[in-house]
């Protein structure tokens, strides 16, 4: 891999615009912004942004996330999950750190910090 490819690989991002519907799995090594409807899973080594028009029915697994739209399913975030006031999350959250703005809607379970890190490696007590 050339030096230019290594430098640029972290700066790329993807965007899916309103009016688009995707059924299936999206896998990316970079950031992605969702302003459309997704039925399926999103796996990102970067940040996932769900815009106010974004609707996800499935699972999200990423490094960081910002949710302004609708998410039904499980979201796993290795670092920071930011839930904005316009967000509606129905499902399970697993994250290291969470920030929730007033008026955001969340119905489900949330595991944070060490509980999130050890959830799959240790049995429940």
SSE topology string: HEEEEEEEEEEEEEEEEH
Note the main sheet. 10 strands, parallel
Distance between the termini: 46 Å
Which structural class do the helices and strands define? Answer: mainly beta
Low-confidence stretches: 1-10, 120-125
Helix content percent band: under 10%
- Tell me the number of structural domains: 1
Shape: globular
Q: Work out the number of β strands.
A: 16
Indicate the proportion of strand residues.
Answer: over 45%
| Overall residue-averaged pLDDT value | 85
Specify Rg, calculated over alpha carbons: 15 Å
Total helical segments: 2
Describe the overall structure.
The model is unreliable at 1-10 and 120-125 (pLDDT under 50). The protein contains two helices and 16 strands. The protein has one domain (12-109). The strands form two sheets. Strands 1, 3, 4, 6, 7, 9, 10, 12, 14 and 16 form a ten-stranded parallel beta sheet that branches. Strands 2-5-8-11-13-15 form a six-stranded parallel beta sheet, with no helix packed on it. Helices cover 10% and strands 50% of the residues.
